[in-house]
Amino acid sequence: MTTLDTETLRRLPKAVLHDHLDGGLRPATVVELAREAGHTLPAGDPDGLAAWFYDAANSGDLVRYIATFEHTLAVLQTREGLLRAAEEYVLDLAADGVVYGEVRYAPELMLERGLTLPEVVETVQEGLAAGMAKAAAAGTPVQVRTLLCGMRMFDRVGEAADLAVAFRDAGVVGFDIAGAEDGFPPAAHLAAFEHLRRENVPFTIHAGEAYGLPSIHQAVQVCGAQRIGHGVRLTDDIPDLAAGKLGRLAGWVRDRRIALEMCPTSNLQTGAAASVAEHPVTALKDLGFRVTVNTDNRLVSGTTMTREMSLLVEEAGWTAEDLRTVTVNALKSAFLPFDERNALIEDVVLPGYAPVLRRSPRA
Q1: Which positions bind substrate (predicted)?
Q2: CATH superfamily membership of 12-335+345-350
Q3: Cα–Cα 20 to 30 A to 35, which of 41, 289, 297, 334?
């Protein structure tokens, strides 16, 4: 029987669909850029800052969790900061065994030092390209594409959607709305989603994390989301998970293969789940939902894809087969053309898991 130790898990090919640029900076980078920008941090050294982020995020409250981004956004207001963060983002994914990633961020939050919305997107894409070139040269190739976010509690969602359309041939593959869910329903931005559909730009919507089924219903049935960011509260429509009897909304999501971008550690921190062992991701996987596993915010949550997988193995009894399933799920639902998705599955993921599965009793 193969032991799924940390190094084995790190080497497995991974795909991440839900990961925020401003939540995944290196602590040392935040410290250095903050010093240059004159921004005061709650801790002055990388280890202390990483610990502060993790402790602050463990509040059990989404609004307080989001408040930690004050310090990462402070260092993403210049071309130099964005270039460095984007390049390091790619290199960190590559070091974690990720072969495909979608990074998301809200350009409207990065305008305080004079950059325009298009300049923010162009700069991030430049940094991502530099990171991909370095990763490929080091023998750890990774493809990274971009989702642009609109902040649901502000009034610039339409502008962000226009940006996604404008840059759809330059590495931007989709759209999202982010921010506090409660009181800011997806349908308030229906015009933006209708515009994206007309322009053939796919989108996901943060829903079912801090708010319940109405949030998911609006995201899917009113706005037409192809994926759901988090979606933990979908279990409210499955009163008896053990019996597996689905309500109409849960059945719709499963049967139409709408991917759930689940983030176990982050969901624990925001109070959307009680523990990794009890996290709905396992039950939903077993019920045949198109579950994916993601990091959400690697700095803020103190996590990586390897760590998320390790927690699921250790605390929820996942096998290599389960990990392969959710990785294939992620690539099936990536906002890439079909032939590119299929090539990653057939040429990278399945061969990458084969040696481990051959030694597994469930292979």
Answers
A1: 20, 22, 179
A2: Metal-dependent hydrolases (3.20.20.140)
A3: 297
